[in-house]
């Protein structure tokens, strides 16, 4: 079920009414059942994978905590890691690794018959496997005690607002909220409604409209495109993927708030930052902090000298790229971000700069924002392209065959129209350093924002219904990861 469909609305209303009339104990049980129904809406067969991860990590967590023998503790942690990563590896990477193996051995003159499987990628598997892994790792590191109530732990794994596309929650944050009766305040309801509305705006108005531009560019033969059209397609995808994923996260957090549950912030203002470190502090925060805490630090972090620090950053970002998909474009995307982070860290540690304040600083800030945005966009080109050959062809278009301005006016006008309001919201969030900054605006401006979003959504949905007879929400990009 997609958040922005009538089917989900009916599902949510039934669940929410039941939730408000049940006692705390039965609220949790009902939410668990609702979460399984929600997931079964895609494919009920893959509920078995969630149950495997849930059962194995529940018992591994208890065994790790109860054991005083270091070898046994490592053994149960290894069982958790192998179980979850095997499920993820088989369903997501089997054909990728098989194809890579075939290509490598063919270089040696051997041409084996490699078996490829018609494997369906279970929606959300990358998210809930990472979520359960953080639980067993935290217990192993003595940062928390295991959950003894199996059904509450199952709810932590399967909680439907964030099950299929995050945020990737930590047990230390989410599990304690299931253990006590929730108090749903008026403030939480207001915040939840705002986050849902904002998420719908990001998805329906920004992402889905940008998708039309991005899809038309990336599906075309590069030779048929001018460099300007290629560039506009890249810009469109940059705002499509932000609107799509940040929109889902915003709706997930808002829905959870209506249940009295606080999920972690997953996006802030990633296109208004000046360096790659701040980009990853504002983009998919739940994943970037997961990679930092459970991969980068496990590799040694910055504890063993500069070279090993750079190595750990590089490995972390390559695996972070591979997490997104089974293709070499995702690996190269991870390599790019790893290199950029290393270069930024090197210059930050070794190069001192002095700028005259007041006049130069704001201009320099704007230059850095624009520069960082274009580095990010180059990464999105690699991320979105079907192959590295397409990346090269589109870059070549931009450099040697940009074309006339007339050719890109329709693209540029559409992009400006769809993102100007998003830019204003992001700027308010950055100035106030708060993803709920709109809630603290004066009444007139706050309600003007609400009214604009509501009118926009009604207009877009109305146009869709009038042209096709019904509103059919497009799927979310990150469901494929």
List the helices and strands and how they pair.
Blueprint lengths: L5 H16 L2 H20 L3 H20 L3 H37 L18 H16 L9 H9 L12 H9 L6 H33 L8 H32 L17 H7 L2 H15 L6 H19 L3 H23 L9 H25 L3 H13 L8 H24 L10 H26 L13
Quick structural summary:
Helix content is 72%, strand content 0%.
Question: What does the model show?
Answer:
This protein has 17 helices and no strands. It has 481 residues and is mostly helical. It folds into two domains: 12-182, no CATH class; 187-480, no CATH class. The longest helix is centred in the first third of the chain and has 37 residues, at 70-106. The radius of gyration is 23 Å and the shape is globular. The chain starts with 5 loop residues before the first helix and ends in a 13-residue tail after the last helix. The model has no long low-confidence stretch (mean pLDDT 88).
Task: Jot down its keywords.
481 residues, mainly alpha, 2 domains, 0% strand, globular
Class from helix and strand fractions: mainly alpha
**Helicity, in percent?**
over 70%
* Total number of helices: 17
How many beta-strand segments? 0
Characterize the biggest β-sheet: none
| Shape estimate | globular
Q: Return the average pLDDT rounded to an integer.
A: 88
Tell me the distance between the termini.
Answer: 17 Å
- Structurally, the number of domains stands at 2
């Amino acid at each position: 079920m997609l958040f922005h469909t009538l089917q989900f609305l009916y599902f949510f209303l039934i669940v929410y009414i039941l939730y408000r009339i049940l006692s705390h104990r039965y609220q949790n049980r009902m939410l668990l059942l609702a979460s399984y129904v929600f997931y079964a809406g895609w494919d009920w067969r893959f509920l078995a994978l969630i149950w495997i991860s849930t059962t194995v990590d529940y018992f591994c967590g208890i065994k790790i905590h109860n054991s005083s023998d270091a070898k046994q503790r490592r053994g149960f942690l290894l069982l958790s890691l192998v179980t979850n990563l095997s499920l993820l590896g088989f369903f997501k990477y089997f054909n990728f690794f098989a194809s890579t193996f075939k290509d490598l051995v063919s270089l040696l003159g051997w041409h084996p018959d490699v078996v490829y499987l018609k494997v369906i990628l279970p929606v959300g598997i990358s998210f809930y496997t990472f979520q359960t892994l953080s639980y067993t790792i935290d217990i192993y590191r003595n940062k928390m005690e295991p959950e003894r109530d199996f059904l509450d732990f199952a709810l932590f794994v399967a909680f439907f607002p964030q099950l299929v596309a995050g945020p990737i929650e930590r047990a230390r944050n989410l599990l304690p909220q299931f253990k006590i009766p929730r108090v749903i305040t008026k403030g939480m309801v207001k915040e939840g409604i705002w986050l849902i509305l904002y998420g719908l705006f990001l998805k329906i108005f920004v992402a889905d409209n940008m998708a039309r531009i991005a899809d038309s560019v990336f599906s075309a033969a590069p030779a048929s495109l001018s460099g300007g059209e290629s560039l506009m397609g890249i810009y469109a995808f940059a705002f499509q993927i932000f609107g799509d994923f940040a929109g889902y996260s915003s709706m997930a957090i808002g829905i959870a708030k209506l249940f009295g549950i606080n999920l972690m912030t997953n996006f802030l203002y990633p296109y208004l930052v000046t360096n790659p470190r701040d980009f990853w502090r504002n983009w998919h925060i739940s994943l970037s902090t997961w990679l930092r805490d459970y991969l980068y630090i496990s590799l040694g972090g910055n504890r063993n000298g500069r070279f090993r620090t750079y190595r750990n950053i590089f490995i972390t970002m390559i695996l972070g790229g591979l997490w997104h998909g089974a293709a070499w474009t995702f690996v190269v995307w991870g390599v790019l971000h790893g290199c950029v982070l290393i270069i930024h860290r090197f210059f930050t540690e070794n190069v001192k700069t002095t700028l005259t304040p007041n006049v130069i600083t704001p201009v320099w800030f704007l230059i850095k924002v624009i520069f960082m945005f274009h580095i990010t966009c180059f990464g999105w080109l690699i991320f979105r392209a079907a192959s590295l050959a397409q990346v090269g062809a589109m870059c070549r278009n931009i450099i040697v065959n940009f074309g006339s301005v007339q050719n890109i006016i329709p693209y540029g006008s559409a992009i400006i129209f769809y993102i100007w309001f998003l830019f204003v919201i992001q700027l308010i969030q950055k100035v106030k350093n708060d993803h709920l900054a709109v809630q603290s605006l004066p009444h007139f401006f706050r309600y003007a924002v609400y009214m604009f979003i509501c009118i926009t959504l009604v207009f877009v949905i109305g146009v869709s219904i009038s042209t096709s007879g019904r509103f059919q929400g497009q799927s979310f990009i990150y469901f494929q990861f």
